[in-house]
Amino acid sequence: MVNILITKERKMTEIYLVRHGQASFGKANYDKLSELGIQQAKWLGEYFSHREVTFDDVYMGEMVRHDETTQGIADGLGNLPVPKVHSELNEFNFQAVAKAYLDANPNDAVPEGAPPAEFYRLLRKAMLAWASDTLPHELLDESWADFEQRAFNMLQHLQQSDKKRVLVVSSGGAISMMLKHIIGYSAPMVINMNLQIRNASFSQCFANKRGVHLNNFNSVPHLDVIDRLHAITYS
Fold this sequence. Notes:
Blueprint: H1 2-10, E1 13-19, H2 35-50, E2 57-60, H3 64-77, E3 84-85, H4 94-104, H5 116-131, H6 144-159, E4 165-170, H7 172-183, H8 187-196, E5 202-208, E6 211-219
Parallel strand pairs: 1-4, 2-3, 2-4
Antiparallel strand pairs: 1-5, 5-6
Helix pairs in contact: 2-3, 4-5, 5-8, 6-7, 7-8
């Protein structure tokens, strides 16, 4: 019986879904890590190194913040395989979604200089409208159904991996949508999960050809220490 269990375990691929480090919220170019975001990624790499967690394969989206996070992890860990870039791991265009929502709901506009919480309230409303397919398609880069499908395609691709351990660097929206396909929650819950995922956090899954199973969600052990609590961020 022990030998059978070991054989089954070897057939599983361990997948780490990592959200990028803190981006440049409120700046002209959001798609770039802040100094703290770079440090968060390096600390995550150091955590993997201390735990002797190494990766046989690496995937990331096309965005600058994905590339910089992957490089930060590599710097902390010591080395990584050459990343494979997949557009399926890109974040949805939240600016286009918010603009399309405001086109029909101008009174919900967030005044300049408002706290980030006000923007997130707007984003939640806009995403709910997007998910219910009430936003004009001509103002969007993709429909909610398209976003859901590309996340599913990526998850299926990862599920077919024959590697022992895989690192995936993406964004909160794409990760929460992949988790939807694993756990089976609703569109409103995708939005809630998206807004909960912390920067440079990882969600650990196990996959084989029969399915994908979530083992833990939104973990930041590399930041959950007394002198780094300030570094737990959501943007």
